[in-house]
User: What shape does this take?
Amino acid sequence: MPTARESLLDAAFAALEGRPWPRVKMAEVAAAAGVSRQTLYNQFGSKEGLARALVRREADAYLSGVERALSGASGAAGPRERLAAAAVWTVRSATENPLVRAVLTGCWNERLPTPVTSVTSVTSVRTASPGPLPAPGELLGQARDRAVRLLAGDWPPGVVELPLACEAVARLALSYVVAPAPAADVARMVRTVLA
Assistant: This one.
């Protein structure tokens, strides 16, 4: 059973799918989660705190998906295929989730919560609020660093250096997010570039 915090984040995400963030009401989020408004404020302190936690959760889910793709959970066997799977995940995740797209690109629109890059101190919040959101380059760097860590033992010698390959693939995937094309195309491009 999800915690009140997770239920509130799920309800906020569902509300965001239906209307712009400025029109999302805290009372509606609490009601949809089946908790009181006071519970919502106890968890997040404010609408800004809820927004920050929601965006942080989606960014963390994106990075978890990158790790799954790189670990071979997607069925990809070799390191190049796993890098291609991570690139496909990046494109699909950003296509399907406007918060992931905004965090990866830094392009926020009026429908989304305003990005919060610094922590606002709220003393009444019982649950620690997440830290500042990573800038697009930082999130891309986190994905790259995970790729380097997870592929280090499998990377073939004599080809492009692993950190450089991971950086190139992350940036290539981001280009497909910014200038949309089918996610499958990014996998083909990654395999071509790393051949």
Observations:
- Residues 47-70 form the longest helix (24 residues).
- Residues 118-129 have pLDDT under 50 and may be disordered.
